[in-house]
């Protein structure tokens, strides 16, 4: 019974169905419970939030990641699945505190100064939330000093910066320099991404990691979180 409902959650994450009114990638699913109804039902049956996350949401998202990498899924498919996971995480959040599961670290994300592209950053934020991180999204066109102020206030373990323009990626370097000048550089791991930047650029500005897509962003943060160097 427990396994059935977790398998259904996993399948509906893969299908990107939040509620029973949603269509899935396969036909004929409208009217069947989606991830939010199934998550409520699983909790009502006494299934632990940890099992729902591990065997339902995370396993589902792993498959979505594989399909994305194999080019079977495109960005809208990935977003639908990530949204389903995000909604389930909102339902689970109060129960996580009760069951003693600590949320993972906190990450501040921002698109750098002068840059209005925020679609990729938003995907990264949703996937990190889905993976259990507390994400504070500062938005787009964010000045280095605003990132410094947020690091002081929020005390995150990670800062994630996004840049899509070759004219704005320079602000990743200035933000890292500003972190150093403020004595905060060793308090946070900095990861970067966005179409303008690369692994080589990340190394050249002294970032701790680079992610080519949202799933890599999660993998890098998890690896840095556990002390690895990605
Ligand atoms: C949509 C778009 C816009 C929209 C943005 C809307 C929005 N709310 O974001 C609008 C219309 C506003 C726009 C404006 C402009 N744009 Co534009 N835009 C694009 C476009 C078509 C798609 C970008 C996108 O959303 N991709 C989809 C997302 C999912 O991908 P992504 O951002 O790369 O994010 C993924 C990864 O990079 C990674 N990632 C992203 N961020 C992060 C962060 C971290 C920490 C990590 C680990 C990973 C990570 O994970 C994400 C998810 O998988 C690109 C072309 C392209 N193919 O990239 C041009 C593009 C980026 N734009 C471009 C340009 C030139 C402009 C303008 C200057 C145009 C103009 N003359 O006005 C303005 C600049 C405005 C500004 N100041 O920012 C150029 C940039 C060229 C360059 N080398 O600098 C591009 C490449 C188009 C081109 N070929 O010329 N644009």
Would you give an account of this structure?
The protein is α/β, with parallel strands linked by helices and 230 residues long. It has two domains: 2-98, Methyltransferase, Methionine Synthase (B12-binding Domains), Chain A, domain 1; 106-225, Rossmann fold, CATH 3.40.50.280. The chain is built from nine helices and five strands; from the N terminus they run H-H-H-H-E-H-E-H-E-H-E-H-E-H. It has a five-stranded parallel sheet, with helices on both faces. The relative contact order is 0.11. Bound molecules: cobalamin.
Q: Layout of helices and strands, plus pairs?
A:
Blueprint: H1 2-15, H2 35-44, H3 49-69, H4 75-98, E1 106-111, H5 119-130, E2 134-137, H6 144-154, E3 158-162, H7 170-181, E4 189-193, H8 199-204, E5 209-211, H9 214-225
Parallel strand pairs: 1-2, 1-3, 3-4, 4-5
Helix pairs in contact: 1-2, 1-3, 1-4, 2-4, 3-4, 4-5, 5-9, 6-7
Bound molecules: cobalamin.
Residues 75, 114-121, 123-124, 160-162, 164-167, 191-196, 211, 213-214, 217 line the site of cobalamin (B12).
